[in-house]
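Lecture 7, part 2: worked example. A protein chain together with 2-phosphoglycolic acid.
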Amino acid sequence: MIFATNFKTHHTRVSTKEYMKKLQDFIIKENIKDDIFVFPTSTSLGNFKLPSNMFMGVQNAYPAINGSYTGEIGLEQINEFDLKTILIGHSERRTILKESQEFIAQKFNYFKKNNFKIIYCIGESKEIRDEGFESAMEYLWSEFDGIDISYDKLIVAYEPIWAIGTGASAKKEDIEQILSSLRVKIEAPLLYGGSVKSSNIKEIAGIKDCDGVLVGSASLKVENFCEIIKNSKK
Ligand code: PGA
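Predicted complex, written out as structure tokens:
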């Protein structure tokens, strides 16, 4: 399985360091073989010595080596930490930060060219979901416009917007239906995200075609993230 934690705008340099240490200790002590990704804030990125199955990634970056992009970081800043993983297309960047599909594809292609592992997020709104499964799939495929779905370092995260941060994840049958439809065309690992927590991980991990999870709120405390990893195996 793949377990990814997205800190969003939480944690500081100090608390990220503590988090990484505790998570690493847990992974070693429990002999966890899954791939674990941590996406801290840009200010908390670092050159951490990590086990081979643990990766730090960036939540966002501008598709340029450097330049006049106020408030952004580029490849030069990421390279300083030797990081090779990026999250692209998260719904909060699509909606709150107004990133267009065209710009998202530009980012994707830039970081693909630079050989990054890309966790690429897609997800429909409540309004679209309410129109039914066909509408949801049509919308989800449109979020792959300009994206190379055969890229060998791609991981796709399906995160229905209405399930993010709400405490209520999508229903097992719905996740199953969406992931199996994506699987028809996509060979890359498929993650589910949206209110994953220690109490529902077992069910989600058991979904056919679900190769892992992307977790926000329920992973902010390292103990809870460890419990999610542990409970997936019970
Ligand atoms: P959540 O966030 O776990 O808080 O729902 C998931 C995400 O946005 O990646």
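The pocket of 2-phosphoglycolic acid is lined by residues 6, 159, 164-165, 193-196, 214-218 (CB under 6 Å). The longest helix spans residues 13-29. Keep this in mind for problem set question 3.
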